[in-house]
Amino acid sequence: MRRGWKMALSGGLRCCRRVLSWVPVLVIVLVVLWSYYAYVFELCLVVYLILYHAIFVFFTWTYWKSIFTLPQQPNQKFHLSYTDKERYENEERPEVQKQMLVDMAKKLPVYTRTGSGAVRFCDRCHLIKPDRCHHCSVCAMCVLKMDHHCPWVNNCIGFSNYKFFLQFLAYSVLYCLYIATTVFSYFIKYWRGELPSVRSKFHVLFLLFVACMFFVSLVILFGYHCWLVSRNKTTLEAFCTPVFTNGPEKNGFNLGFIKNIQQVFGDKKKFWLIPIGSSPGDGHSFPMRSRNESQDPLLANEEPWEDNEDDNRDYPEGSSSLAVETEA
């Protein structure tokens, strides 16, 4: 009876958490809908409406893709078989468990390790983590090339939707900038008392204020992610240096500026601005710097970084501008 009550309470709390996780998304949607109404119907700046709607379409399209593109999980070959899982869980000696994972990982294309040099294993999903894969404590799953969990899209940003998230940031910046620049002349009229409508005064004032406020925060976040893309890093890798079989290397996936961009957007430039999937690969393995140094000796000129900490620890939820990074 008591156990059933606890289970019901736990289920209710999980349900409430899922509902509340949509609050940030709802706030963004309401702000965007109000901005559309104020700009199109209240100010009715006919000259600017064509370009405004073009930006608005791409802005909403990329936001939709960022929210509803599901995070991609490792495929079945990275999961422990039923037999291996039983052997692993029944083994009480940590050193033997560690060796078991090493033997299993030999069959898989994994080259990153924990800070102690062990195979990266998720004891919640019961799988050997592919390179750049991490467990999201919010989504309760391992996510391929996980970057962070973003509350503003209520989704985990990773291999399947990182391109869409970057495009969303870019079109958000452009959307805010366009509104601020086109509304500014009306703000001057408001300041001089040349706007007769009281309702128009309200919309002009708050359109400019909200656009500028979001523009500043989005530019910072977008600039940070542009830097990450240029180095072929995820947010988690920027905070926690990846460890390879030969030791920690902060630039382990850095292939050079152009190739780094292509790792996110693909090699066909005609798809770079459109929110359709074009990232190369399957998210389970990635080209590494060490494999390209023999072809391009210039890649070996950067210095190594400091040692990393254990990859199997639980990371507390922390915020980075508009993003929340969570990993186990």
TrEMBL record:
Its EC number is 2.3.1.225. InterPro entries: Palmitoyltrfase_DHHC, PFA4/ZDH16/20/ERF2-like. Residues 318-328 have a biased composition (Polar residues). It catalyses: L-cysteinyl-[protein] + hexadecanoyl-CoA = S-hexadecanoyl-L-cysteinyl-[protein] + CoA. It comes from the Eukaryota. It is a multi-pass membrane protein. The keyword Transmembrane applies. Residues 303-312 have a biased composition (Acidic residues). Keywords: Acyltransferase, Membrane, Transferase, Transmembrane, Transmembrane helix. Its main location: membrane. One of its GO terms (cellular component) is membrane. It is found in: Membrane. The chain crosses the membrane at residues 20-39, 45-64, 168-190, 202-224. Belongs to the DHHC palmitoyltransferase family. The DHHC domain is required for palmitoyltransferase activity. PANTHER family: PALMITOYLTRANSFERASE ZDHHC16. This is Palmitoyltransferase. It comes from Aotus nancymaae. The gene is ZDHHC15.
